Amino acid sequence: MKKKYDIIIVGGGVAGKSAASELAASGKKVAAVENDLWGGTCPNRGCDPKKVLVAAVEARSNANQLIGKGIESAPDVNWPDLMAFKKTFTDPVSEQTKKSLIEAGVDTYSATVEFINENSIRVNDDILEADQFIISTGAHPSILDIEGKEHFLTSDDFLSLPEMPETVTFIGGGYIAFEFAAIANAAGAKVHVIQHNKKPLKAYDQEFIKELMKQLEDKGVTFHLDINITNIQKSSNQFILTDEDNFNLTTDLVFGTTGRIPNIENLKLENAKIEYDKKGIKTNKFLQTSNSAVYAMGDVLSKSQPKLTPVASLEASYLVSLLRGKTEESLIYPEIPTIVFSSPKVAQVGVTPSQADKDKDKYDIATIDATDWFSYARLNEPVSLVKIITEKKSGNLVGATCMNNEADVLINLFSILINKKITANELSDIVFAYPTIASDLSSLLA
Ligand SMILES: Cc1cc2nc3c(=O)[nH]c(=O)nc-3n(C[C@H](O)[C@H](O)[C@H](O)COP(=O)(O)OP(=O)(O)OC[C@H]3O[C@@H](n4cnc5c(N)ncnc54)[C@H](O)[C@@H]3O)c2cc1C
Ligand SMILES: NC(=O)c1ccc[n+]([C@@H]2O[C@H](COP(=O)([O-])OP(=O)(O)OC[C@H]3O[C@@H](n4cnc5c(N)ncnc54)[C@H](O)[C@@H]3O)[C@@H](O)[C@H]2O)c1
């Protein structure tokens, strides 16, 4: 069968789903093709299930901090029950997403897409043509090419683990390792994180990351820096991890957390003359690929912005406006807040301390130890640190990095101040409810 559409969306994840429904609602004839779960990574095997599990970390650390201060003991995590709770969020996602697309007027196909030429794709036995395409196929976990690599589990497996074993090891000290290490530790596992150099979470302020590692070590997580694992060997029900020196670690499960690879390998992009590099599909500032009828968005893009859900959503809504003729402007990204949901949490937005450090004539950095501030002291948090970056010339706030259990709330407040260029003076006109994280803001900027 041959069918023709105005727009075909390849990949029904975060970005694809929202662009498909909005374009169909605007009267375009739209098809969306997905080869796995509708809704994609974030609600099925990413942000949302992860954040459900983070509740266990929060419950335990909040209670642990207050032992001897009115709380008798920290709750134990029942992993199978927590997983069952997680499934109440994830199980319905795919079917509900597909249903909502159909209700919006989108034709949905379940298939792995491949381009046949510049304006048609193969979808199972059908050939679909379109005036325009949007590729939003996301990314998948990368697996280190080492001996025994077949033993690696991925983040997808962790988020569906039926039982938490005694020891788990993460190879690669990035977002996923720091978040999952806190979760597995709260669930009672002995956790190891192995990083091949001295800079885990390298996009973040390394002073804060050292402190985060210390906090996790105090809870029982072990970090191994400068270790390059070259072999995973199965030994009865366990795995032995070794490098080319004397490193040797036995673990029940080993997870590969060394980053994600854009999903482009099955698309036959060459047939449609779409250029890409190892970071993903290359586009111009209008998210248009080297084939002018094809656009791309989300994690599959080769870009310098972080590969995150709100960024994918922003790109989807930009492309909806562009393809509906509502804008002719290129996409301008705001300052994007990022968070590591570890224990404590670390977050940043705007100019980072290391960028500011390299340009001391332009920026001032203030480090604030807020550990004994009421907001954090009342919870007996072990650490609360904030770095504020201001531009010398204007005095404007241009960056913030924070580490405490409320960093997810705090960073969004900083994001508003930075993106809307709100000054400390203007902030003093606003009354915040007290005592809250927001009511600390003016003291942080003082
Ligand atoms: C463990 C984990 C935790 C995360 N936590 C956070 C977080 O806390 N906050 C945050 O902002 N971001 C987080 N992320 C990142 C976030 O999930 C992604 O940035 C987001 O899902 C990207 O959306 P997307 O639409 O580009 O891709 P996806 O949501 O991955 O969707 C792509 C879709 O395309 C489909 N597809 C792939 N190839 C083909 C093909 N050839 N044909 C048809 N369909 C195809 C896939 O099956 C998938 O459904 C996390 C990611 C992971 C893995
Ligand atoms: N909170 C969030 O927003 C969130 C959470 C999880 C995932 N994500 C997204 O998913 C992506 C992937 O996460 P990730 O943690 O897999 O990747 P990552 O890019 O955050 O970290 C990978 C880490 O592995 C290290 N590494 C690389 N090769 C190695 C090797 N041979 N041995 C040991 N370490 C090695 C890197 O130096 C890096 O520290 C993130 O970049 C982000 O886009 C976001």
From TrEMBL:
Co-factor(s): FAD
Gene3D superfamilies, alphabetized: 3.30.390.30, FAD/NAD(P)-binding domain (3.50.50.60)
Cofactor note: Binds 1 FAD per subunit.
The UniProt record lists the keyword Oxidoreductase: yes
Broad class of enzyme this protein falls into: oxidoreductase
Superkingdom: Bacteria
Disulphides: 42-47
Keyword set, alphabetical order: FAD, Flavoprotein, NAD, Nucleotide-binding, Oxidoreductase
The protein's Enzyme Commission number: 1.8.1.16
GO molecular function: nucleotide binding; oxidoreductase activity
Domain Pyridine nucleotide-disulphide oxidoreductase dimerisation: 336-439
Binding site for NAD(+): 172-179, 259
Binding site for FAD: 51, 299
Domain FAD/NAD(P)-binding intervals: 5-315
UniProt keyword Oxidoreductase, yes or no: yes
Pfam families: Pyr_redox_2, Pyr_redox_dim
Cited InterPro entries: FAD/NAD-bd_sf, FAD/NAD-binding_dom, FAD/NAD-linked_Rdtase_dimer_sf, Pyr_nuc-diS_OxRdtase, Pyr_nucl-diS_OxRdtase_dimer
Family annotation (PANTHER family): GLUTATHIONE REDUCTASE (NADPH), MERCURIC REDUCTASE
Family listed: Belongs to the class-I pyridine nucleotide-disulfide oxidoreductase family.
Name of the protein: Glutathione amide reductase
